[in-house]
Design a protein that fits this description.
Elements lengths: L1 H7 L7 E5 L5 H9 L2 E6 L2 H11 L8 E5 L12 E5 L5 H10 L6 E7 H8 L9 H9 E9 L12 E8 L8 H11 L7 H5 L4 H15 L10 H12 L11 H13 L9 H9 L1 H12 L4 E2 L12 H24 L8 E6 L2 E7 L6 E5 L8 E7 L18 E3 L8 H4 L7 H18 L29 H8 L3 E6 L4 E6 L16 H15 L17 H5 L18 E3 L4 E6 L2 H7 L8 H5 L2 H7 L4 E7 L6 E3 L4 E9 L8 H4 L5 H4 L2 E12 L2 E16 L6 E3 L6 E2 L4 E5 L4 E7 L4 E2 L1 H8 L3 E4 L4 E4 L2
Parallel strand pairs: 1-2, 1-4, 2-3, 4-5, 14-28
Antiparallel strand pairs: 5-7, 6-7, 8-9, 9-10, 10-11, 11-12, 12-13, 14-15, 16-29, 17-18, 17-28, 18-26, 19-25, 20-21, 20-24, 21-22, 22-26, 23-25, 27-29
GO molecular function: 18S rRNA (adenine(1779)-N(6)/adenine(1780)-N(6))-dimethyltransferase activity; phosphatidylserine decarboxylase activity; RNA binding
Enzyme class: transferase
Protein name: Dimethyladenosine transferase
């Protein structure tokens, strides 16, 4: 049984696993064989001691960390996968803790009492469809994967068990759980009654009325007394057609539509109690936010659009945070692309640990800060400049910006002492922190402490204040998990490095075809500075000769910059691009370790049954992933006759490893162009004789790719290493498919099996035909 559970998790060699309730370790030792690290949370110290003895002195010991305590209350580390033979008394708390924990795990394989498991996977209209079913299925995909009989346990329990797979939806639906759960508490209280009868039941209307009036009182909202809660509810049910519906048959979408109707008339606060409302204000994370702001050694705009700066709630923080991210992205755009910088209107400034109101001066673009010794005391105006101080149209928002504050010559005392702490930031620091800010708010629901806007402009390179408030190895893992960067291996040195895919690649690609000379110069210059482009290889070294940014992006290199290895040896295969490379002896090996999309089959990729048959059942393949900074022309890996080119329209999903490694069908869903080369390679029986085989080159468009362009035509002979085509702006991938039996270079095979891409250049030898 332990082996079956571990297999269902599809663990990767790089995974960090959280195990809840390991007991004596029967399941733990199987997980340790597959995963990089295991954190086991055990309530019973005696069981923890037994588990420690079991791995003591063995290689697995260094991969295991044991936490003794209550899982529900424990401070958890980062983890990719959760596996648990769940203590049945914490079944529900465990599920909801996993779904609310950030960052979300990739998958959870959990064993529960059979009845609880069946309620998790129940569907509308069945006897077990319940509030639990709806709440969990709002945030995750749940599958029943195996039954576990009593005889699998010693001593046998009184109940049957089942194992379920829970895959959290990422990103999570933008629905407040308290509202959704509050509605479900009501409608599932009498699940077989009509929704109208349920709401009109004794005590329900009164409860809603009480909740609503309490909330309005706390928010200083005037209630229209002439409109009764009963009338409001009847109107909602009638307009949504839910009068005769029953909760037992309503699916998640039906419940969401009903909740949306409550939103439309502004009474969702009636669905849950005043105690829940108050939790926001006193939430420990909200307090932590304030403490973190106060302890920051540099002045910052705190992104809280509230006139009561001493008591920001989590709701306040969230409301302003989304706008601050918009501002960060536009600020970045203005500094690198000469685009516009929106100007913010008001917010809260932190200065010397004191939170005070601030506003943007529309006359000069500076920040006017009103300083007072108390919330009701007199205000003193202080002018501060906003960097960069460029003219720009204003935008509607109450949020504060995330830009650095420093006093101008006209500023008064009280700010000069802190201004000296500002450091000139690098573009990479801006990008890392801006992307971290974006992800932390979208994944956490409560963006915890990354609310000191200054971090996007002037943070120390080691992020000393940032690291203590994130989980271990948070930044690099966070960026990788959110498609913001990846670990890759430099082939020549075997050095493992982390490549950042910054906010730059998320700016709409249309502007890159602009012919405005000033804009083009700014785009090219910032691109070169950001990615440290080697200009010595350019075929056209005069940067003013490029009419658009896209011309520079798809630039040609000097004729001898990418010479192919062994050009006269037909058995040698060379890299098709400057890229991050993974190689796979067979299609199945790629699917097992790297490409997890369920529709990733050869026929789905090439859209041709005939071509798929010609390549055989076990073709070899190489995946060349190009990042925005790479030379974006791709070359032929072999010599051959270009017999066909077929274009298949589709999407432009990211092809970063974390997307490819998930159940996302990015390669078979994306726009792609397929070329078939008829290549002459050595016959298996003789090194002197040649056989003709099809080699397929699939150019896959990805994030923000403008287009896929071919430089060669059908019917032409293409030499090994010659250019085939190019991509316009964005990330992209080339997949080359070869007949079965290609012998890939050993270092590439080893890295690929470890889940690490290798940096290679076009023309480098990567393998041979047998």
């Amino acid at each position: 049984m332990p082996n079956s559970i571990v297999e269902k998790a599809n663990l990767r060699p790089t995974d960090k696993v959280l195990e809840v309730g390991p007991g004596t370790g029967n399941l733990t030792v199987r997980i340790l064989e597959k995963a990089k690290h295991v954190t086991a949370v055990e309530m019973d110290p005696r069981m923890a001691a037994e588990l420690t003895k079991r791995v003591q002195g063995k290689p697995e010991q260094r991969k295991l960390e044991i936490m003794i305590g209550d899982f529900v209350k424990a401070d958890l580390p980062y983890f990719d996968v959760c596996i648990s033979n769940t203590p049945y008394q914490i079944s529900s708390p465990l599920v909801f803790r996993l779904l609310s924990y950030r960052p979300l795990c990739r998958v959870a394989i959990l064993m529960f009492q059979r009845e609880f498991a069946l309620r998790l996977v129940a569907r509308p209209g069945t006897a077990l469809w319940s509030r639990l079913s709806a709440n969990v299925q709002l945030y995750a995909k749940v599958d029943h994967i195996m039954k576990v009989g009593k005889n699998n346990f010693r001593p046998p329990p009184q109940v049957e068990s089942s194992v379920v797979r829970i895959v959290p939806l990422d990103p999570s639906p933008p629905v407040r759980f308290e509202e959704f759960d509050g509605l479900n508490r009501i409608i599932f209280g009498r699940r077989n009654k009509t929704i109208h009868a349920t709401f009109m039941a004794r005590g329900v209307v009164e409860m809603l009325e009480k909740n609503w009036r309490t909330w309005c009182s706390e928010q200083n909202i005037v209630i229209e007394d002439e409109i009764e809660m009963k009338t409001r509810i009847e109107k909602i049910l009638e307009e949504t057609g839910n009068t005769e519906n029953r909760a037992a048959k309503m699916d998640v979408d039906d419940i969401l539509k009903l909740l949306a109707a409550f939103h439309d008339i502004g009474v969702t606060a009636a669905l849950y109690s005043a105690e829940v409302h108050k939790a926001d204000q006193f939430n420990p994370l909200a307090i932590f936010v304030r403490d973190r702001i106060a302890s920051t050694p540099i002045p910052a705009l705190c992104l809280i659009p509230d006139t009561s700066p001493h008591s920001p709630t989590v709701t306040d923080v969230n409301a302003s945070f989304s706008f601050s991210l918009f501002y960060i992205s536009r600020l970045f755009a203005s500094r690198t692309l000469n685009a516009f910088t929106p100007r913010l209107q008001s917010g809260i400034v932190e200065d010397g640990g004191l939170l005070v109101p601030a506003a943007v001066d529309s006359t000069n673009g500076g920040v006017r800060k009103s300083v007072s010794s108390s919330r009701s005391g007199p205000h003193q105006a202080t002018n501060m400049h906003l960097a960069p101080s460029t003219a720009a149209p204003s935008v509607r928002s109450a949020a504060a910006s995330t830009t650095a504050l420093a006093p101008t010559s006209s500023g008064t005392s009280g700010t000069t002492s802190v201004a000296k702490h500002l450091l000139p930031p690098s573009y990479r620091e801006q990008l890392r922190l801006a992307d971290a800010l974006k992800i932390l708010v979208t994944r956490s629901g409560i963006p915890s402490c990354i609310l000191v806007g200054e971090t996007s402009l002037a943070i120390s390179t080691n992020h000393t204040w940032l690291r203590p408030v994130l989980w271990k190895d948070a930044l690099d893992k966070l960026f990788a998990a959110e498609h913001l960067g990846n670990f890759v291996l430099v082939r020549s040195t075997r050095q493992k490095i982390f490549e950042i895919m910054p906010l730059y690649t998320r700016i709409e690609g249309l502007i890159y075809d602009s012919t405005d000379r000033d804009v083009v110069r700014g785009q090219i210059a910032s691109f070169i500075n950001t990615y440290r482009i080697d200009l010595t290889e350019l075929a056209q070294p005069d940067l003013t000769a490029y009419q658009t940014f896209n011309e520079f992006f798809s630039r040609k290199l000097r004729a001898k910059a990418r010479l192919p290895a062994s050009p006269m040896d037909p058995s040698v295969i060379v890299s098709a691009a400057d890229c991050r490379l993974t190689v796979w002896p067979t299609w199945d090996s790629a699917r097992k370790i790297w490409v997890k999309g369920r529709r990733f089959t050869l026929q789905n990729l090439v859209k041709s049954r005939t071509l798929a048959r010609a390549l055989g059942s076990r073709p070899s393949l190489a995946i060349f992933r190009l990042a925005p900074q790479d030379y974006h022309r791709f070359h032929s890996p072999v010599k051959g006759l270009l017999s066909s080119i077929t274009h298949i329209p589709g999407e432009y999903y990211t092809v970063n490893p974390e997307a490819v490694n998930e159940d996302l069908d990015v390669f078979t869903a994306n726009t792609r162009s397929i070329a078939v080369l008829q290549a002459s390679i050595p016959a298996k029986s003789s090194m002197t004789e040649l056989r003709v085989v099809p080699i397929v080159v699939v150019a896959v468009g990805a994030l923000l790719v403008g287009s896929i362009n071919w430089e060669r035509k059908r019917g032409e002979i293409v030499e090994k290493g010659e250019r085939l085509g190019y991509f316009k702006y964005g990330g992209s991938t080339v997949i080359c498919i070869f007949p079965e039996g290609v012998i890939w270079d050993g270092d590439l095979v080893q890295s690929s099996e470890e889940g690490i891409e290798v940096l290679v250049k076009a023309g480098e030898k990567i393998g041979t035909f047998p």
